[in-house]
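In this supplementary section we document a worked example of the pipeline. Step one takes a protein sequence of length 510 as its only input; no multiple sequence alignment statistics are reported here. Step two produces a three-dimensional model, which step three serialises into structure tokens for compact storage. The input and output of this example are shown verbatim.
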Amino acid sequence: MRKEHLVKNAEDRQHRCPGESYTISDSVCKGRQRVNYPKCNVCLDKVEPMDFSQSHAEPKLSQDIFKSYDIRGKYPSEIDDLTARKIGASIAQFFKEENAHAKNIVVGRDMRLSSKTLANALIEGLCTAGLNVINIGVVSTEMTYFAVGYYKNDGGVMVTASHNPAEYNGFKICREQAIPISLETGLARIAKLTKQYHPPRGEQVGKVILSDIFKDYKKHVLSFAGNLRHLRVVIDAGNGMAGKTVPIVCEGIPIEIIPLYFELDGNFPNHDPNPLKAENILDLQNKVRETKAHMGVAFDGDADRCMFVDEMGRTIGCDIITALIARHLLEREKGATILYDLRSSWVVPAEIKAGGGIPQRERVGHAYMKAALRGKKAVFGGELSGHYYFRDNYYADSGMIAFLTVLDILSAKRVPFSNIVAPLKRYYSTGEINFEVEDKDAKIEEIAKKFSNGKVDRLDGVTVEYNDWWFNVRKSNTEPLLRLNLEGKTQEIMEKGRKLLINIIQDKSQ
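The serialised model returned by step three reads:
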């Protein structure tokens, strides 16, 4: 618990318990340890050795918070300040194991009610274990990636729960060059370290360096926009981070912004910060029609994803946006590789080929998409979830760059948004349908057997393709759900397939 940075002189030593903002004297610290003060269990710097082998066991750490791509759970029942401090120390140890010269790690946080206290605890753990922290404050997730890549830091942690409701929070972690850390590439190790009673402390306590990156970030993302013309755009920030980033980035460009819910509010009083749910973009759609805007866009809570609607307020699928951006980028870079996730419409690979590009199909998830982008040196990639990845953005996803690129397309085409996307709406899709299924693996195997007469692949769950329709059934990487996506060449074919698959998944009579 002894902190060098809290010591004014040798005779005036002060201590601070994990997660507490006030300091205590040396005698109070020792007294707390003698009575087994609960926070001593996760303190990395005890003044006196203690025996915890009997009645005072370590609070149970839920392994469920360690997801495929990030750490996420309810605050404070699943993730609290003490857990955050231990996770910080474990992240630092992991980085040192991977790179003995690791020194600086970026930390950003969103506007959730628990993000500040979790970030402070995380930073304390990182510094105690010997890493310096570049604290970039309240930012979008993509700004954390940018700060790692642009300034050549050793890694980064973003405190956020993305699109989850207000009671959730967590951490997204990346290494140098904004390379994501998933369960397979480090999260499992961090989880194991966090379970240890006392992660080892560093030889020297790290320091915290405050950094304002908005000027450099703005210059970077605006480099993706060309000659923008005046456009009227409704933007729904959902009380999330876009409410801070959009005004800064768009200041000085010829865009008339009609704002919805730009006030940062971790309670999300207007709607959940997930634009993929139809009920969360109703206000956006109505405002676009009311103001006769050229388009509308809704960002998720940490502003790394976005969803678009046309001038009539009609939703545009994220795979359609992927196809649109792909054709736009291929005009400048013929022969480039473009990635798309396996839930995307048939129109995506068709448009990539038509634009002279090389389509590359990939499994769902930002860790897999980013790894494939780097491996193929792909210029761009898009997911049905609204994640858009750019080679020249450190292969990272950026809702802001996707937004600016769509503005660039609209500025150049000078026709209504609906006219631009109409030729891309050639097929009929169900959208993503979610099911609660007890044995998800068994259900996937059952489906694979029932449709073995089609073209079957197992890249992610099971995908079956026929001449006039296809479907994919896969387990969610972030939630305890089975997900279905299905597309047909006609409305009738799509609806017939949807009914068939739903009956099978829900064990209804065929």
